[in-house]
Amino acid sequence: MKHYLDELAFFHNPTSETTKQAALQKGPKDWFPHSENFQLDLERAFGLWDAVFAGVKVAAEKGLVGKAVVVEWEGVDRWVRERRPSESN
């Protein structure tokens, strides 16, 4: 996920579908040539992000983290969602 997100930063519009597709094509070729299914691996990494973010929200409900922490995570989650590859790809 880190390599994918880093690659998007090199493009003028990191949230466009064209940019996301270009980064997806680079993954199995340049970063992880031994990956049998790079797109599935990336989807799993984003799924892990979703799980951690959900845990932060639960931690806030239980009073384990403050509202400021949740607000920060919400901002980062919006940033990540804009860059996430489309489910249909």
Outline the structure in words.
The protein is 71% helix and 0% strand. It has 89 residues and is mostly helical. The protein has one domain. Helix 1 packs across helix 2 and helix 3 packs antiparallel against helix 4. The radius of gyration is 15 Å and the shape is elongated. The mean pLDDT is 93.
Outline:
Helix content is 71%, strand content 0%. The chain has 4 helices and no strands. Helix 1 (2-8) crosses helix 2 (17-31).
Please supply descriptive tags for the structure shown above.
89 residues, mainly alpha, 4 helices
- How many β-strand runs? 0
Series of H and E elements: HHHH
Strand content: under 5%
Shape: elongated
Q: Which helices and strands, and how do they pair?
A:
Blueprint: H1 2-8, H2 17-31, H3 38-61, H4 67-83
